[in-house]
User: Fold this.
Amino acid sequence: MAKTPDITIKTPEEIEKMRVAGRLAAEVLDMIGPYVKPGVTTDELDRICHDYIINEQQAIPAPLGYGQPPFPKSICTSVNHVICHGIPGDKVLKKGDAINIDITVIKDGYHGDTSKMFFAGEPSVAGKRLSMITQQCLYLGIRQVRPGAKFGDIGRAIERHAHANHYSVVEEFCGHGIGSRFHEAPQILHYYSKDSDKISMEPGMIFTIEPMINQGKRHLKILPDQWTAVTKDHKLSAQWEHTILVTQDGFEILTLRAEEAGWQDHL
Ligand code: MF3
Ligand code: CO
Ligand code: CO
Assistant:
């Protein structure tokens, strides 16, 4: 089996720091939930998260200044047909809007990365169903994680469930190794590819799984801000993300929230 030398195996000390960073990122999602209501702007959500991460957590919001051009805000807010990397601004949420909030914090030099879907007020039937199936895709992907499993197992499980529900899988963005760097090797595809069957999971690897699932076709375009990815057909898109550690006998979800207790029973 070919090994990929640039996938880092984390030491026990690094794993402990990743647990802390993951827990902090999850706590930001718990904290922001009550603020997601009709009438709030995505800028207000960004400011609340920014202040919480800096002042309460004494951590760093990883998106701020990241990449080229530098991402201008501290969180990503992706509303309705926005697939990912939505930039907070003066957009006002209205009743029924679906929004993915993606949080990445740096604590003690290590990253925790997680996102979930929220609704402003009562969700639409279509939005709720897409969000639920996408969350199931994430969990089905996570369930593949164990030493010796192939990265292709994750993509296969996600793609199968999305397609069974007549949705499509975004291919241009993927999950990623994570640690002292925001985005490390390997890339975690959310669809099946032969290439991803070449690499086996090993204890101590840490990576994200973050499927983006579309109601219509998978195709996207990037807006002139060079960040915001939207569906070409302007139909809905949903995303859920966790940071996962490969353990001796399976996985540990470093960004698990209390509300997810018992998630394996709901698949
Ligand atoms: N958090 C995103 C991810 O899951 C990356 C956002 S990059 C940013 O990988 F610059 F937009 F923050
Ligand atoms: Co990520
Ligand atoms: Co993320």
Notes: The first strand starts at residue 60 and ends at 61. The chain is about 25% helix and 25% strand.
